[in-house]
Amino acid sequence: MKLDLKLTKQILTTFVKEETEKIGLKTVVLGLSGGIDSALSAAIAVEALGKDRVFAVGLPYKLSSKESMADAELVAKALGINLEIADITPFAEPFIESEPDMSKLRIGNVLARMRMVTIFDRSAKHGGIVLGTSNKTELLLGYGTWYGDLASAINPIGDLYKTQVWELSEYLGIPEKVVKKQPTADLWPDQTDEGELGFTYKDVDRLLYEMVDNRRRKAELVQMGFDEDFVQKISERIMRYQFKRKIPVIAKVSQRTIGRDFRYSRDWGY
Amino acid sequence: MRVCLAQIKPFLGDTAKNLELHEECIEQAVAEKCDVIVFPELSLTGYYLMDYVNDVAMKTDDKAVKRIISLSKDISVVFGFVYEGEDNLFYNVCAYAEKGRLVHLHKKVYLPDYTMFEEARYFAAGNGFSVFDTAFGKCGMLICEDALHLSSIYVLSRMGVQTVFIPSNSPARGVVGDGLEAASIWQTSNKYTASLLTVNLVYVNRAGVEDGVAFWGGSEAYSALGKRKIQLPQFEAAIGITELETADIRLARIHSPFYRDEKSQILLDYLKGDKK
After folding, report:
1. pLDDT, tens only, A141-151
2. Whole-angstrom Cα distance, residue B131 to residue B159?
3. What would the pLDDT profile of A22-32 be if each residue is shown by its tens digit?
4. How does residue B276 score in pLDDT terms, banded at 50, 70 and 90?
5. Is residue B2 over pLDDT 70?
6. DSSP state of A210
7. For an interface test with A, which of B88, B213, B215, B235 has the most A Cβ atoms less than 10 Å from its Cβ?
8. Chain A residues within 8 A of B209 when measuring between CB atoms
9. Rg of the Cα trace of chain A?
10. Across B85-168, where does the E strand assignment appear?
11. What is the full DSSP assignment across B228-269?
12. Do residues A160 and A15 make contact, with C-beta atoms less than 8 angstroms apart?
């Protein structure tokens, strides 16, 4: 699963440039969390469009770790891009407090969706396209908030596993501190992705690559040395979250149903 | 022949649960003293499999397939699944099992690949139709779209078919004005085939919804005299039983000897290019 880094960079920068410019837009807007995924998306956008055409938004909540925003600033400075810090506390907090005993999961989803609202608003402000920052590992595991951080218009890194994100990030010169740090969705204090998921990205990426890209079946994977329960757990997880990867299901009535037999590319007309 | 039409609602991609569903229906049909039970197309797997085709594919020695074949000791069974051939190609098939053995496997020939359909993207196509001897005479199987082509019914007829089974996964679409266009096409076609080939015909369509697409059910059977013997409700899972008589085939061929009078030479001359 080792990438040809030079070629990958070329494909992804061409993608961002063409998909942005062909619809008449000049800039991209993305949330910058201080983590590696958004840093990589931003770096690709800079390579594609130049630093002045990339607008990053830092979206802290009162419980977010200070380190995350410091890292976002570090990345923005290293890349030379525009960074706005838009604290979501003033509108997220009243919402959360309006519902007594909101669970951690619900709060996490609310925060992700408040960030989505802000990013899409800023995209209108800057006349930019919203750049996605979800990687292939997250998308397959459904580890993201539907219509929250999963929402975007174009996503340059959605076909890269987390370990490939690290590899490409290093190649593109993203600050080492950000590449090396423990991944976290920062939805509550001391949260780490690997702690919450219960396995490491390295392990799951190896499995996902064999399962998805190489289409290995369960028996083969077990024979290759993967733990049977782990294989079962991951394949169930991929199935369970398929809905997050699809447009809403429309009930078929007519001869031409949107998404089913009314089919055109999104770039139809461009 | 006492036939059970098993208009089930398969679980998408869950062969274990679908096997249970088959077992329940078979048990009920046996209790009702049926000779044959007919399930819809892809009854062991569900329809919108897409990339899952490769994962749910089975060979004929697979546990679920073997289980149904073993249940055919008590009742003949027509059922559908994804078959992985020795060539490692994947086929949409239906099987006829009787007396504990697999009698015939038909690979779907006409894979719809237009509008909402993309079967040819996922399946390899079969390349022919044939009849097979059963405890109830010569039978033939056509999977859904197969039955809407002239070559299939022509060949089965010339091979002497007496009973045609049509397992189907027909979705509801084109709801404008009164009724359901798909249902109307199938009812016309089924009655036409039974009447003109003078054969008994069993059409079993599935029920249930997959990814926004509703399968309309409405399974039915016709006698060789073109008389509808049973019709199951639309859209819901249902089981129906009817009697099909070989005497009807005889009577139909006396009253309307289309089968006897068909002149294959005309077709042969045309295909050979002798007649334009």
Report:
1. 999 999 999 99
2. 6
3. 999 999 999 99
4. low
5. yes
6. I
7. B213
8. 251
9. 19
10. 90-98, 101-107, 131-134, 137-141, 163-168
11. EEEEPPBSS-EEEEEE--HHHHHHHHHH-THHHH--HHHHHH
12. no
Q: Taking an 8 Å Cβ-Cβ cutoff, which residues of chain A contact chain B?
A: 215, 217, 249-257, 259-261
* Distance, CA of B128 to CA of B106 (rounded, Å): 8
Count other Cβ atoms within 10 Å, centred on residue B266: 10
Cβ–Cβ under 8 Å, residues B40 and B168? yes
- Report ipTM for this prediction: 0.86
Q: Does B58 lie at the interface with A, CB-CB under 8 angstroms?
A: no
Nearest one of B82, B90, B78 to B26, comparing CA atoms: B78
A90 has a pLDDT exceeding 70: yes
B131, B138 Cβ separation under 8 angstroms? yes
pLDDT tens-place string over residues B66-109: 999 999 999 999 999 999 999 999 999 999 999 999 999 999 99
The domains found in chain A, sorted by start residue, are: 5-183 (3.40.50.620)
Element (H, E) at A235: helix A228-240
Q: Under a CB-based contact definition with an 8 Å cutoff, are residues B148 and B117 in contact?
A: no
Q: Which domains does chain B have, with CATH numbers?
A: 2-272 (3.60.110.10)
What pLDDT, on the 0 to 100 scale, is given for residue A186? 84
User: Which residue of B11, B48, B82, B116 to mutate against A (max A Cβ within 10 Å)?
Assistant: B116
Q: How far apart are CA B255 and CA B120, in angstroms?
A: 41
Identify the three-state secondary structure at position A198: coil
Q: Which residues contact A124 (CB under 8 A, 6 or more apart)?
A: none
Q: Take residue B115 and report the two structure tokens written for it.
A: 């509008």
Task: Report chain B residues whose CB lies below 8 A from the CB of A254.
Answer: 173-176
Q: Count the Cβ atoms, other than its own, within 10 Å of residue A146.
A: 15
Q: Tell me the pLDDT band of A189, cut-offs 50, 70 and 90.
A: confident
Q: Which chain B residues have a beta carbon less than 8 Å from that of A215? A: 54
Report how many helices (DSSP H) and strands (DSSP E) chain A contains, helices first: 12, 4
CB contact under 8 A, B173 and A249: no
